[in-house]
């Protein structure tokens, strides 16, 4: 386990994923008194590229996260990106009593269960609800936009892989699970295939597709919460991860009342002071 340190820097913006890491950091501080950390608020606006220093496509930030997304952290010079990877790293480093996570050594089956649900959140809830947000709130009326959106995102992700493979045979130098399963490409490439090959011409289809899938995923969460206060019985990083998205669920037209177990779970987490502290620290001060 890590010694107390002030060398963690958290790069973020208050999106669904952007408040998740700071929430865990605050939960750890409430129990252990560490880690202290610094928050750097980033711009995620494309209009700020080349104009704002703390923009996620800035060269200095791409050295921390080559995918140019928030959140990311640095710890003693070591960079970690992808929300779920950061949660697992921080838990490994600072959750010495397994208050918010499961130990891969002491509780391997519990750890596996935790990782399964963490990946469910990372690969299911986040991408699908994120696209529901997009089509409901931001998309223009022409379906070709959806096709171009996913093709361009797939192309951008493969450009990141191309850059990572410079001078390497495999993504991390030697063949491993990063090569077998590369997280960001699957959802985006799958949706590119869907819109290019199968989608009807009406843009409402896109909204309906993702809202329906988000609803289906929350039904899985609802079932998992039967007879439980939290997803794995006790509060931890899986709850923190999904809560980050649940805060925005009603924006896509899905009321929490549809899922009474989820609603009660949401209210339990929302009552935790560290959760509000984590959201607050990820939010830039008003000008």
TrEMBL record:
- According to the entry, every stretch annotated as the GST C-terminal domain falls at 107-287
Classification via PROSITE patterns:
GST_CTER, GST_NTER
Q: Which residue numbers delimit the GST N-terminal domain?
A: 5-98
Task: Report the superkingdom from the record.
Answer: Eukaryota
Q: Which family does it belong to?
A: Belongs to the GST superfamily.
Q: What is the protein name given in its UniProt record?
A: GST N-terminal domain-containing protein
Q: Which organism is it from?
A: Phlebiopsis gigantea (strain 11061_1 CR5-6) (White-rot fungus)
Its organism's taxonomic lineage begins at: Eukaryota, Fungi, Dikarya, Basidiomycota, Agaricomycotina
């Amino acid at each position: 386990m890590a010694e107390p340190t002030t060398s963690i820097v958290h790069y973020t913006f208050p999106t669904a994923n952007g408040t998740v890491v700071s929430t865990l950091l605050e939960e750890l501080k409430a129990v252990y008194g560490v880690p202290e950390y610094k928050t750097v608020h980033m711009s995620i606006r494309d209009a700020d590229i080349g104009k704002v220093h703390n923009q996620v496509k800035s060269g200095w930030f791409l050295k921390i996260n080559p995918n140019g997304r928030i959140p990311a952290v640095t710890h003693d010079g070591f960079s970690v990106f992808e929300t779920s990877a950061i949660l697992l790293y921080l838990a490994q480093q600072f959750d010495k009593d397994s208050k918010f996570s499961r130990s891969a050594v002491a509780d391997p089956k519990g750890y596996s269960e935790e990782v399964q649900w963490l990946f469910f959140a990372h690969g299911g809830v986040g991408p699908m609800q994120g696209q529901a947000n997009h089509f409901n709130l931001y998309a223009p009326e022409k379906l070709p936009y959806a096709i171009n959106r996913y093709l361009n995102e797939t192309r951008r992700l493969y450009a990141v892989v191309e850059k990572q493979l410079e001078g390497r045979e495999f993504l991390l130098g030697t063949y491993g699970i990063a090569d077998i399963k590369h997280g960001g490409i699957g959802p985006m490439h799958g949706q590119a295939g869907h819109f290019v090959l199968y989608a009807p011409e009406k843009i409402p289809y896109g909204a309906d597709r993702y809202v329906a899938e988000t609803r289906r995923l929350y039904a899985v969460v609802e079932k998992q919460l039967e007879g439980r206060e939290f997803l794995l019985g006790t509060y931890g990083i899986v709850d923190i991860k999904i809560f980050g998205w649940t805060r925005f669920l009603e924006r896509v037209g899905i009321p929490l009342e549809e899922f009474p177990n989820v609603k009660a779970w949401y209210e339990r987490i929302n009552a935790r002071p560290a959760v509000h502290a984590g959201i607050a620290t990820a939010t830039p001060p008003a000008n």
